Amino acid sequence: MLNNIYQYFKDYLEETFPDIHFAEYRGEFKEKFPASWNPSFPCCLIKLNEYAPLVRSSANEIIKHSTAFTLYMGERNSLGFEIIQTIIDGLNGINILAGSDYYSVQVNSVKFLAGLNSVRVHTIDVSVS
Is residue 55 pLDDT above 70, yes or no? Predict the structure, then answer.
């Protein structure tokens, strides 16, 4: 189920925000990341923080899931606030269909992470349950 939630969430982001490049976060905004990474901006990298079963049936089957993601939003030569607000507006309170189940999306926080080589990076913490 985790793969379904991740994939449908990523698909929703790509369809809703076609001008932003989405990919899995692999540490690209850490200081020691290999220099061979050549991103296109604006970009939004998705990191899985947590996945947990919330509700189980009497037969111990998972009925409801909770997933937490951090989106690393990178924008070159800009504060990025306009794009961040667009993402918040497009995510907060929506329901995405993953398989046959609907999941509610909530934006929990936005934080400034770093300014690296004229790129400003903010994190957007999102829960999907």
Answer: no
Q: How far apart are CA 25 and CA 47, in angstroms?
A: 5
Per-residue H/E/C for the chain: CHHHHHHHHHHHHHHHCCCCEEEECCCCCCCCCCCCCCCCCCEEEEEEEEEEEEEECCCCCEEEEEEEEEEEEEEECCCCHHHHHHHHHHHCCCEEEECCEEEEEEEEEEEEEEEECCEEEEEEEEEEC
* Strand 43-56 with 21-24, pairing: parallel
- Place 112 in a pLDDT band, splitting at 50, 70 and 90: very high
Sheet with 62-76: list strands edge to edge.
21-24, 43-56, 62-76, 119-128, 101-116, 95-98
Nearest to 10 by CA among 38, 37, 47, 42: 47
Q: Is residue 46 predicted with pLDDT exceeding 80?
A: yes
pLDDT band at residue 80 using 50, 70 and 90 as cut-offs:
confident
